[in-house]
Design goal:
heterodimer; A: mainly alpha; MetI-like fold; 2 domains; 10 helices; 77% helix; B: 258 residues; alpha/beta; four-stranded antiparallel beta sheet; 36% helix; binds adenosine-5'-triphosphate; binds magnesium ion
């Protein structure tokens, strides 16, 4: 009525319409929740259907989501769950910290100093295609079954993505930016600090995220082999006692922790690289 | 001996050649540029304009000959020779203000001084109010204004510009040409400006160096005595434009037949 010419909604980009944007976000979130609920429903149906109707396989092999939740509550009450989460997390954080520092440092050195690149690159290329897990039994031999072997193992596995992306990030610094800085009076160290490092940062952050994901990936395997705590131990220990609910619970908890850390890392990335968010306002 | 004995040249290019492998990019270039003069290097693509400018900037060394600034041979870049690039070359992770304050920051100015200088030079190029924007959120014309402010904030005595307005639309380009002249008249700098636009060179320069191709060399040096501000429709302007067009066309044809 008050608007003489009604604008068709499609004529305005979705991002510009606040109400629609919220609706879209809500719809998006709603879809996700729905998808998860659907997954749980199918899981429940298969589990309970098998247990009471079809009897295809031994019901003990696939407990229902509720049974897993109950296992979680039991384990949390006894304190085992917290202990295992803490053990795995502390290994991951220590191993990843070593990988991050070593990967960035060696990557920066190799990326800036050509002779070193010629020396290190072939070694890395040789080791990289070997799945880190292949070295796990050896590391247990070398470093024992204590914390050291696990931390070293994580550090080894997570080193590669951090190192590779750091080197790539440094190599792809736009030469015209280096010229611009030099013509403004930057010395070699200033070029490194004010141009090379910030230009390589997006690559480095990607590497850190990949490395962190990999740390979680490998810790579980390490805890299968030799450990008396941790989420991998929880799963493996439950296997020997045929407690499938506990095994599934371990997997779910690992998934949740990975999910939460990914959100945290993404937020950190968005803040560090806030200059990348373009779109005029 | 010639007149250069009396007026000492700010930039002296003596017998400069540049080879890339077997290819000769520049052959025996000699030029003297007076202090506070505005020189345009004009010529078709590939005649070695950027190569010559890069040697004045110190990004490259001549294969033979010498580039002298204030009587000193150039070896490497210096904060006294500001450079503006066609591709802007702004640091995308620094705001407009922090891009402009980059030179003062390197020279150890306090954060407050950096901000003050940054604001002042952004205002000079008409970008007051855009201090906190990142380059990714600026238009091409605004980016080049920031780049000019960044070069000027170091207060260099030489300003080297390699097709700075080449990527801009015609209107923005003319506005920036006028603003550049206004800044140059107030802040007296020795400007070397690379372009392949004949009209741009006549509008801006005291002296136009028309370059030859294959190999790159100086073909003709034209000193302009047209009064400023120059009118692009003035008969003297258009006559000069025709004359230079002939010179440049001969060079382009040379490229075509070889
Ligand atoms: N680093 C390099 N290696 C090899 N050849 C080069 C290099 N830089 C320039 N050249 C060659 O030198 C010649 C002059 O190049 P230059 O970039 O100076 O030309 P230009 O006049 O600036 O051209 P344009 O108008 O296209 O920018 C060209 O033939 C180019 O191929
Ligand atoms: Mg060029």
């Amino acid at each position: 009525m008050s608007e003489a010419i009604p604008l068709p909604a499609a004529a305005i980009p979705a991002a510009r319409r606040p109400s629609t944007r919220w609706r879209a976000a809500f719809a998006n979130g709603g879809m996700r929740v729905l998808a998860i609920l659907l997954f749980l429903a199918i899981w429940t149906a298969v589990s309970l259907g098998n247990a009471y109707v079809w009897k295809f396989f031994n019901p003990i092999l696939l407990p229902s989501p509720l049974a897993v939740l109950k296992a979680g509550i039991d384990l949390a009450e006894s304190g085992e769950l917290q202990r295992d989460i803490f053990a795995s997390l502390s290994r991951v954080l220590q191993g990843f910290a070593i990988a991050a520092i070593a990967g960035v440092a060696v990557g920066l050195a190799v990326g800036t100093w050509r002779p070193l690149e010629k020396l290190v690159e072939p070694m890395i290329e040789l080791l990289r295609p070997i799945p880190p897990l292949a070295f796990l039994p050896m590391m247990v031999l070398w470093f024992g079954i204590g914390e050291t072997s696990k931390i070293v193992f994580i550090a080894y596995a997570a080193f590669f993505p951090v190192f590779t992306t750091t080197v790539e990030g440094i190599k792809h610094v736009d030469p015209v930016l280096l010229r611009a800085a030099a013509s403004l009076g930057a010395t070699r160290t200033e070029l490194f600090r004010y141009v090379v490092l910030p230009a390589a940062l997006p690559g480095i952050i990607t590497g850190l995220r990949l490395g962190f994901g990999l740390s979680f990936f490998v810790i579980v395997a390490a805890e299968f082999i030799a450990a008396d705590s941790g989420l991998g131990y929880l799963i493996n220990d439950a296997r020997t006692f045929f407690m499938v609910s506990n095994m599934l619970l371990g997997a779910v908890v690992i998934g949740l922790i990975g999910f939460l850390f990914n959100i945290l890392l993404r937020a950190a990335e968005n803040w560090l690289l806030r200059w990348r968010q373009t779109g005029r306002s | 001996m010639d007149g250069n004995v009396v007026t000492t040249a700010k930039i002296r290019i003596r017998g400069v050649s540049k080879r890339f492998g077997d290819a000769v990019a520049l052959q025996d270039v000699g030029l003297d540029l007076a202090p506070n003069s505005f020189t345009c290097l004009l010529g078709p693509s590939g005649c070695g304009k950027s190569t010559l400018l890069n040697m004045i900037a110190g990004f490259a060394e001549p294969s033979a000959g010498q580039v002298l600034v204030d009587g000193q041979p150039v070896h490497g870049p210096s904060a006294d020779r500001g450079v503006v690039f066609q591709e802007y070359a702004l640091f995308p992770w620094r705001t407009a203000l922090d891009n402009v304050a980059f030179g003062p920051m390197l020279r150890g100015r306090s954060r407050a001084e950096q901000r003050e200088i940054g604001r002042r030079y952004l205002a000079l190029v008409g970008l007051a109010g855009h201090e906190d924007k990142y380059p990714g959120n600026l238009s091409g014309g605004m980016k080049q204004r920031v780049a000019i402010a960044r070069a000027l904030a170091n207060d260099p005595s030489v300003l080297l510009m390699d097709e700075p307005f080449g990527a801009l639309d015609a209107q923005t380009r003319e506005v920036l040409q006028e603003e550049l002249l206004a800044i140059w008249e107030r802040h007296r700098k020795t400007v070397v400006f690379v372009t392949h636009s004949i009209s741009e060179s006549i509008f801006l320069a005291d002296r136009i160096v028309v370059m030859a191709t294959r190999p790159g060399a100086v073909k003709e040096v034209i000193d302009l005595d047209l009064p400023r501000p120059r009118d692009r429709s003035d008969p003297a302007f258009t006559a000069l434009e025709r004359r230079i067009k002939e010179l440049v066309r001969a060079e382009v044809q040379k490229l075509g037949v070889t």
